[in-house]
């Protein structure tokens, strides 16, 4: 957090791992090395900074491309603060209930709850890796902190970084991922979800995803 001594009553957020509606879905996810999770970030601030997740990067898979992740806002609003590993691009994606957001390879991510309403979001992600927290721990969070009222303040522990780009959720059409329904309903549709395990097969579409 921007203020390491800030305090908050109760947990900043809660993660429900490996959630399914049926054993059939659980088996399908396991067979395809995928996981569906739900995260709840209650409204609130720590000091004057909005509640958020800790932040992490994903490692590269065998083909050298790092694993993406797919989110959907179920309730509330989310700011997905995405930063390239080389810090040449830092983007905040403003997402509302129903929106799906894909975290592309090379980008670390923090999710911020920027409103006075509980944020509930779901994610689908490969189980073939462990999250990497190193940079976020060393540099005390993401490259920007979002303060009450919506101001983004540069994290002073970071070197010179580009200004923050603000975008709406990019279309997932180039990846042929249907985004009109529930993220959960993509379980069983490996054509849509293969990108989570094998991003190297989709490099072109992924490269341009955040171009805006
Ligand atoms: O691991 P962090 O940085 O706390 O982020 C939590 C987020 O990461 C995930 O565990 C998976 O990337 C999500 O379920 C959750 O929203």
Draw up the topology in text.
Blueprint: E1 14-16, H1 23-31, E2 34-41, E3 45-46, E4 49-50, E5 69-75, E6 77-84, E7 90-96, E8 100-103, E9 107-112, E10 119-126, H2 134-138, E11 144-146, E12 152-154, E13 165-167, H3 190-197, H4 203-207
Parallel strand pairs: 7-13
Antiparallel strand pairs: 1-2, 2-10, 3-4, 5-8, 5-10, 6-7, 6-9, 11-12
The protein binds 6-O-phosphono-beta-D-fructofuranose (F6P).
6-O-phosphono-beta-D-fructofuranose is lined by residues 15, 37, 39, 53-56, 69, 111, 123, 125, 131.
Commentary on this structure:
- This protein is α+β, with helices and mostly antiparallel strands.
- The chain has one domain (14-207): Jelly Rolls (Sandwich).
- The chain is 13% helix and 30% strand.
- It has 4 helices and 13 strands.
- The strands form 4 sheets. Strands 1-2-10-5-8 form a 5-stranded antiparallel β-sheet.
- A hairpin with a 2-residue loop joins strand 3 and strand 4 (49-50).
- 6-O-phosphono-beta-D-fructofuranose binds at residues 15, 37, 39, 53-56, 69, 111, 123, 125, 131.
Structural class: alpha+beta
Tally the beta strands. 13
Largest sheet: 5 strands, antiparallel
- Helix proportion of residues, in percent? 10-25%
Quickly list its features.
212 residues, alpha+beta, Jelly Rolls, four-stranded mixed β-sheet, 30% strand, globular, binds 6-O-phosphono-beta-D-fructofuranose
In short:
The protein has 212 residues and is of the alpha+beta class.
């Amino acid at each position: 957090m921007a203020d390491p001594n800030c305090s908050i009553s109760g947990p900043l957020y809660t993660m429900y791992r490996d959630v399914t509606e049926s054993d059939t879905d659980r088996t399908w996810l396991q067979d395809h090395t995928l996981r569906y999770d739900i995260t709840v970030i209650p409204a609130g601030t720590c000091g004057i900074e909005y509640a958020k997740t800790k932040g992490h990067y994903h490692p590269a898979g065998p083909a050298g491309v790092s694993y993406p992740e797919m989110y959907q806002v179920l309730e509330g609003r989310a700011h997905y603060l995405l930063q390239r590993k080389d810090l040449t691009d830092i983007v905040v994606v403003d997402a509302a209930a129903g929106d799906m957001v894909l975290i592309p390879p090379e980008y670390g991510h923090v999710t911020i709850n920027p409103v006075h309403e509980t944020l509930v979001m779901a994610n689908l992600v490969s189980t073939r890796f462990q999250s990497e927290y190193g940079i976020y721990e060393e540099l005390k969070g993401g490259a920007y902190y979002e303060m009450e009222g919506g101001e983004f303040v540069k994290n002073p522990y970071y070197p010179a970084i580009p200004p923050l780009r603000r975008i709406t959720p990019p279309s997932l059409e180039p990846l042929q991922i249907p985004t009109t329904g529930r993220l959960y309903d993509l379980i069983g549709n490996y054509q849509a979800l293969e990108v989570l395990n094998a991003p190297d097969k989709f490099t072109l579409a992924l490269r341009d995803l955040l171009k805006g």
